[in-house]
Amino acid sequence: MIVKKKDEHLLVTIGKLRFDNPEENSAQLVEDQEANAFLNDIINFPHAYVLACCMDRQVKAEIAWMIPIRLKKIIGDFSIETLNSISLEEYLKLFNENTLHRFNDTMANVFYSAVKRIVKDYDGDAAKIWANNPSSATVVYRFLQFNGVGIKIATMATNILARQYKVPFSDYYSIDISPDVHILRVLRRSGLVDKDANIDSIIYKARELCPEFPGIIDFSCWEIGRTWCRPRNPNCEECIIESECLKII
Ligand code: SF4
Predict the structure, then answer these.
(1) What is the rounded CA–CA span in Å between residue 188 and residue 42?
(2) How far apart are CA 197 and CA 209, in angstroms?
(3) Spatial CA neighbour of 128 closest among 137, 136, 118
(4) Residue 10 carries which DSSP code?
(5) Are 11 and 241 in contact (CB under 8 A)?
(6) Residue 165: inside a domain
(7) Ligand 1 pocket mutation pick from 185, 224, 238, 244 by most atoms within 8 angstroms of CB
(8) HSE (CB half, 13 Å, CA atoms) of 85?
(9) How far apart are CA 221 and CA 10, in angstroms?
């Protein structure tokens, strides 16, 4: 049984428990296990993670996150030196011929410029984006400097680094939640926000619940949404936040 702290919502307590668990140290980003292992290898291929984040828009996440390993297989290498040696024209060809993304011209440009930024700003080592115990705001800001990366992706990228990869930061204040379908459903049904609450309201509710690390409830909402609070036939009886949930279904 989860022991809730006084004046803390269960969603926060559960998120903190998962965050403190050293065994929860990887992210399930795609179903394909080889691709997932590649994206989780931020020691040897930190740029694969960053480039995948840059690809994550206007297609299903599963498609975007597969792009690095698909390119690796096509090119035969994914070192930053090799990626940096490829011209924009070649990237345009690679994206279009292999239908890597829904918007191949745009995303080939995004990919190319992201590689150039990693080389220019971080000496080719993308891990410098999050090295040396930076503040969460610093890391979010650095992701925002990549062409096409908005606040949702920048906070999601930083949140995964903190929560799943256990990258140490000096604080977690600037890591907001990245509301996906599970988070929206759980927060609305639980009564924490109105059933028609918009994304901005949900972000601020998470800040209210856990000002020092708003994004920590991503963990609990995602787990609850996948396990008990499914779109149909939610299993309220066994749900771990049953005691605090208003069950507005
Ligand atoms: S108690 Fe029911 S409605 Fe509330 S979060 Fe759990 S499954 Fe969803």
Answers:
(1) 35
(2) 16
(3) 118
(4) H
(5) yes
(6) no
(7) 224
(8) 7
(9) 10
Both tokens assigned to 239: 């749900």
Residue 157 lies in a domain: no
Q: Are residues 97 and 184 in the same domain?
A: no
| DSSP single-letter state for residue 161 | H
Output the CA 156–ligand 1 centroid distance in Å.
Answer: 24
As a whole number of angstroms, the distance between CA 194 and CA 190 comes to 9
Distances 45 to 42, 51, 175, 221 between C-alpha atoms, Å = 5, 10, 23, 29
C-alpha 46 to ligand 1 mean position (Å): 37
Look up the domain containing 195 and give its range.
Answer: 10-23+174-244
CATH number at residue 178: 1.10.1670.10
At 22, list the tokens: 């050293």
pLDDT of the chain along its 249 residues, tens only?
A: 666 677 899 999 999 998 888 777 788 888 899 999 999 999 999 999 999 999 998 898 889 999 999 999 999 999 999 999 999 999 999 999 999 999 999 999 999 999 999 999 999 999 999 999 999 999 999 999 999 999 999 999 999 999 889 999 999 999 999 888 889 999 999 999 998 899 999 999 999 999 999 999 988 898 899 899 999 999 999 999 999 999 998
Q: Flag whether 209 is in a domain.
A: yes
Q: How far is the CA of 238 from the centre of ligand 1 (A)?
A: 9
